[in-house]
Amino acid sequence: MSLHAELGQIPPLRPSVFGPPAIDCDVHVSVPTIRSIMPYLDDYWRQNFEMRGIPMTSWNMTSDPPNAPISGRPDWRPKAGKPGTDLNLLRSKALDDFGTSFAIANCVFGGVAMHSEDMAAVVCRAANDWIAREWLDREPRLRASIIVPLNNPEMAAEEIEQRAGDKRFVQVLMLAMGEQLLGKRHNWPIYRAAERFGLPIGVHAGSLYHQPPIAGWGSHFLEDYVAQAFGFENQVLSLVSEGAFQKFPDLKVVFIESGVTWLPACLWRFNKTWRGVRAEIPWVREAPAELVRHHLRMTVQPFDEPEGGQRLERVVDQLKSDEMLLFSTDFPHWHYDGTDALPVANSSPLARKILFDNPLATYPRLSADIPAREPAQ
Ligand code: ZN
Questions:
Q1: For residue 104, how far is its CA from the centre of ligand 1 (angstroms)?
Q2: How far is the CA of 24 from the centre of ligand 1 (A)?
Q3: Is residue 240 part of a domain?
Q4: Position 19 in a domain
Q5: If you measure from the C-alpha of residue 330 to the centroid of ligand 1, how many angstroms do you get, rounded to a whole number?
Q6: Residue 1 is assigned to a structural domain of this protein
Q7: Ligand 1 centre from 252 Cα, in Å?
Q8: Cβ-proximal residues to 248 (8 Å cutoff; 6+ apart), any chain
Q9: Interval between CA 6 and ligand 1 midpoint (Å)
């Protein structure tokens, strides 16, 4: 049982600025400097870090440069330091301004990319301790994703087991472009542990930069950010084709900051080609799009839409499911102004699905925390 559940501090649901209660499935918290997590390391690793000069390095993810305009909306940046490092700003701008009942904090953390498997494991554990102490203990509306050493799935599974007792951790965090494609058996120990503890796999935009995207290294952050969608597309093909969803029938995968509108075209090509060569993957007995509809969810920011009316409704129609999209602000990233984070009219029946019903159905640990009742209007 979580600390807050034990203390009876589960916050009440409340109407959001959109009307229905909101569960924000992507807000960001950032480790300010490596020194921030040093108190959570043991003596051996603290001394090791000092000896090697590691605290002098930034460990910022190249895919999330803190000074790029997209990384921090001007009114969501702290006066000093990186975006996502100020709890009071997150409280007022990401939670209060939207009327959010719960938000899931994703810490895109450079420690996951370490080539040393031992070091990656200890810094991920320290960062998870830091998230629990510095954010979750101080803000009861926050939940978080578990950071894991992506290069060593056995060690990642150990971290999931270690962390699973704290029910405020509701998801395991991976990246769109890692060492190997997500469907590969190499990654299955992570899925086995996640399924066992009722944790979806959140796949956030980002790369370990151990492998180039698609055909080679680009030169600019611009290319890298746009190419994230291609990385996600690859992962859909891999997860389905390798049989991950047959092996782990209860596994849910959430694409975070992936964009949305590329998926219907991808599934059309996937289904069409599968009909011709499905003998190659006999374990996939239903059309890929059916599996994707069952297992995959996506956050809505940034929503990659052309101009015109009824846009999100059209995408939902093409996906043949109104259960796949989850509300997100992507705080503090800059994709829109004001509170314009919901890509559908407040009056649409889809609004409540995206804001509340779908997130609640996706995250079993949240539904255990939230009593089945309507908020006071
Ligand atoms: Zn994000």
A1: 10
A2: 11
A3: yes
A4: no
A5: 5
A6: no
A7: 18
A8: 188, 191, 192, 195
A9: 30
Domain membership of residue 16 (yes or no) is no
Expressed in angstroms and rounded, the spacing between residue 283 Cα and the centre of ligand 1 is 33
- On the CB side of 8, CA atoms within 13 Å amount to 0
Tell me the average pLDDT across 147-153.
95
What is the whole-number distance in angstroms between the Cα of residue 28 and the centre of ligand 1? 6
- Determine the distance separating the centroid of ligand 1 and the alpha carbon of 206, expressed in angstroms: 9
Tokens describing residue 80: 């000093």
Q: 76-130 pLDDT, tens per residue? A: 999 989 999 999 999 999 999 999 999 999 999 888 888 999 999 999 999 999 9
Ligand 1 centroid–CA 315 distance in Å is 21
Q: Give the number of domains in the chain.
A: 1
Q: SS3 for 167?
A: coil
Residue 257 CA, ligand 1 centroid: distance in Å: 5
State the angle between helix axes of 263-277 and 311-319 in degrees (0 to 180), rounded to the nearest 10: 20
Q: In angstroms, rounded to a whole number, what is the distance separating the alpha carbons of residues 289 and 294?
A: 9
Lowest mean pLDDT among 21-25, 107-111, 254-258: 107-111
Q: What is the CATH number of the domain that holds 199?
A: 3.20.20.140
182 pLDDT band (50/70/90 cuts)? very high
Ligand 1 centroid, distance to 71 Cα (angstroms): 9
Closest listed residue to residue 176, CA positions, set 111, 258, 109: 258
- The C-alpha angle with vertex 331 and arms to 327 and 336, in degrees rounded to 5, equals 80
pLDDT for res 9: 64
The rounded Å distance from CA 68 to ligand 1 centre is: 14
Any idea which residue has 């690859």 for tokens? 234
Distance 256 CA to ligand 1 centre (A): 6
How far apart CA 239 and CA 183 sit, in angstroms, is 4
Structural domain boundaries, residue 110: 27-369
Q: Do the Cβ atoms of 28 and 84 come closer than 8 Å? A: yes
For helices 221-241 and 288-295, angle between their N-to-C axes, nearest 10 degrees:
110
350 with 320: CB under 8 angstroms? no
